[in-house]
Amino acid sequence: MTRKRATLTEVAKRAGVSIATVSNVFSGRKPVNDELKKRVEKAAKELSFQIDRAASQLKSGKARVVGVLVPDLDDTFFTSLISRIEVMALKDSYDVIVASSRDDKQLEESRLQTLLGWRPSGIIAVPCSDIVPAVLAREVAHIPTVLVDRVITQSAVADTVTIDNFEAGEIAGRYLVEMGHKDIVLAASSLDIAPIRERVRGAVSIIHKMSGREPTAIELGSNAERGAEIFAHWLERHPLPSAVFALTNVTTLAALTALARQRVDIPEQVSIIGFDDYTWMSARKTALTAIRQPVDEIARLAWERLQIRIGGDVSEPHPSILNTSLKVRESTRRLADPSRGEGLKPAEEQPGETIDNAAKERPNRIH
Amino acid sequence: MTRKRATLTEVAKRAGVSIATVSNVFSGRKPVNDELKKRVEKAAKELSFQIDRAASQLKSGKARVVGVLVPDLDDTFFTSLISRIEVMALKDSYDVIVASSRDDKQLEESRLQTLLGWRPSGIIAVPCSDIVPAVLAREVAHIPTVLVDRVITQSAVADTVTIDNFEAGEIAGRYLVEMGHKDIVLAASSLDIAPIRERVRGAVSIIHKMSGREPTAIELGSNAERGAEIFAHWLERHPLPSAVFALTNVTTLAALTALARQRVDIPEQVSIIGFDDYTWMSARKTALTAIRQPVDEIARLAWERLQIRIGGDVSEPHPSILNTSLKVRESTRRLADPSRGEGLKPAEEQPGETIDNAAKERPNRIH
DNA sequence: TCCTCGCTGTTAAACGTTTTACAGTTAAAC
DNA sequence: GTTTAACTGTAAAACGTTTAACAGCGAGGA
């Protein structure tokens, strides 16, 4: 199986040049005579030679890898983030090492530690809790780091890219109240997660301000199936709310599953706003109205920040905060007479219409 | 930013031992006196030292990385594969480098080439077409390789893990015919992909055998949105079929989206069988009946084969073929009188019931 | 003609580990 | 009391690159 791979030396010998020349041909650091270059390339091809990254990295100290850590590789939000990061990484010829912390603080530390062993050019991490991993906090001065999504912007020790979670809560809350909803349930994953708390705060505050009511927040965890059970259980012992606002894509799934199991009609009996924007949300008779996170933008910005840091920038940690938008589709119904709890039309807006807050001031926005 | 990281030598100096001892403490290859070990560990912690993988790998030749190549990091099937592989990799303390070929044969080659540059312990690849990437074909003798999913088992140059695609087609086809469906559409991604052709073959053959009818196969590509448009367009110029069998998770989404846009009721007007089994499929009023691929099993087997090869096994390429099952839920309706094309009950089986072919002979099955 | 310069190519010294061969020390065996 | 064996620790040689430093050699300027 393992006939040893060709080395610089062998290629050099075969092409009748020094190893430095071969190295130059591959790295392009110094010009090489055309005729020699041809010979080297021929020899390399014949031996199917390829630079050994370990050796290259050891000597040069440069890595051309980034480590990406996420809390869950089964969560579409994180994988779509990874997908986009991989695209930009390729463009700048970096490779990507992925690791999942599985929402486990301890595993997070150890995964980060091994990631660091690669001496990567940088780390993009979605922490699994508010508190920045100790490894990262310690190492942040030595390695470019960007924290994404689950972060408290204020206290950050590194660059961050997040959405305006409070505003996301507000947008959904406002829309729901405007549609006449009063009895609203907030389907959170876990209130231990700062961004989730922010979304709740945003929704609660605007709902209270506009309607004087207090929405109910329930925690469904970060597993859809279990979340569905919890929610179903909750539904059994409470009167049907008129609307549900799911705060993550997983709780969206959980709520939808529970509602479907109990044969609750959407939006006739219960309106719902989901979180994140995925194809399956439109692949239904009553397409889902949802808060859309700008995943592309998040990934782009994270990569941009990382490159800036790799480039040697040592300025203060830079927080980027992006805005979400509401994709209005068909899962929220207008209640004609709020007090009666009954209405006519499913939704006023055109399906597909977007209520975008893009025009509003974007604090800390790059450019 | 980049104060240099501590090295073995520095730790050794601080602990007052030789670098060999420090190395032994970390690798555990040779026993080290407890008192010394303590000293070394203390020194290491103080310097927040961590073995440099590049150096380690260069010297030892062992990598503890595997490269994983998939055609699309936005496709849940592939990411769930990666998720499971990452779990097993961690268990055996390997790291995972991911790369996407974006269904581009040329990119596939180059991604594979760079992957190889890491001198990984092995490669797990989902090729983007039938023909095995040239790099891999050339290198397969030197590096443990497992090909997954999109593979022609017979001609494989390396270990393969696939599902029985023909059988998957048969299962769905048989079920549909048994439910009284005759006018069936096969929503394929691309007939250039061997497994898809097999699924089509399986469905066509059994449908023909049982009902004498020929289903129509249409190609929707591997992008859900575009697929939806193509299918919508097709629907406009053809009479409604009584059932759709979607052959991939993306075409499932595409078909569902198109059907929803045209306000077609499922299963009243059209029955549908999807592919793959994801949470969103159950998170709907009429939960989706679908062919389930055993993703866990696929990942487990792929990893197992890889480990066997890494262990030095040089026997003939080993094909593993897994069986799929039909998750019967609510999206297929029984047609009472096939000729009339109208029926009564949505489905005979209990929702959630599984028609499993597990008991059948499993060719080439491990164990 | 001599000197300098630009252009290419080479030599050789690292980079931070792993690992072999060896040395020293103590315990067990005879 | 000597020999052996069992343990631990160390010195030093790689691993395959990158990258100074340097060398050879025409050409152009003085």
From TrEMBL, chains A, B:
The keyword Transcription regulation applies. The keyword Chaperone does not apply. Keywords: DNA-binding, Transcription, Transcription regulation. Residues 319-367 are annotated as: Disordered. GO terms for molecular function: DNA binding. It comes from the Bacteria. SUPFAM superfamilies: lambda repressor-like DNA-binding domains, Periplasmic binding protein-like I. Residues 6-60 form the HTH lacI-type domain. Residues 327-348, 358-367 have a biased composition (Basic and acidic residues). This is LacI family DNA-binding transcriptional regulator. It comes from Rhizobium mayense.
